[in-house]
Amino acid sequence: MTGLAHPHPNELLAFALAEEGEAGRRSVEEHLTACAGCRAEVGRLAETLSTLEAWPEEEPPADGLARVLTTVHDAAPLVPRRDDWLWPVVASLVGVVAGSLVIYAAGMLLFARPSFSGFGLAALVFFGIGSLVTLALAPMLLLELQARPQRLVVR
After folding, report:
1. Are 105 and 61 contacting, i.e. CB atoms less than 8 angstroms apart?
2. Is the pLDDT at 40 greater than 90, yes or no?
3. pLDDT exceeds cutoff 90 at 145
4. CB contact set of 100 (below 8 Å; sequence gap of 6+)
C-alpha cells in the first residue's frame, strides 16, 4: 500500500464504470498500482458490472398496464361506515355523565363536612375538570387506536 489514502468506494465504482474524470482516474490508477486490495475490489466491481450487462432484459406483459388500470377503475373507494363516529361519541357522553355524577356525589359528601375548606373546593374543581376531560377523550382515543377493517369493494 502507498502513502496515499484509499479512494472512496464510490470513486472505485466510478472508475470501474469509466465515469471518473481524467484527474480522478489518474489518482485511482496511481493508487491501484500499489494497492492489491483496491485492485481486487475494482476487479469484483468489473465482474459484477459485466454480469449485470449480460443479464437478459425482461419485458412486462403486454396487457399488464391495462389489467392494473381495469382493476383500479373497477374498485370502489373505501367506504366508511355511517356509524363509525357514533360509538366514540356515545362512549364519551356516558363517561362524562357517569364521571359528573361521581364528582357531584363526592362534592356533596365533602360539603357536608364542617372541615371542608376553600383549598379542598379548588382541588375538587381541578380534579373534576381533569376527570371529565379524561373521561370525554379516553374512549374516543382508544377507539381511534383500534384497527378498523379495510373494505375494498370490487364491482
Report:
1. no
2. yes
3. no
4. 128, 132
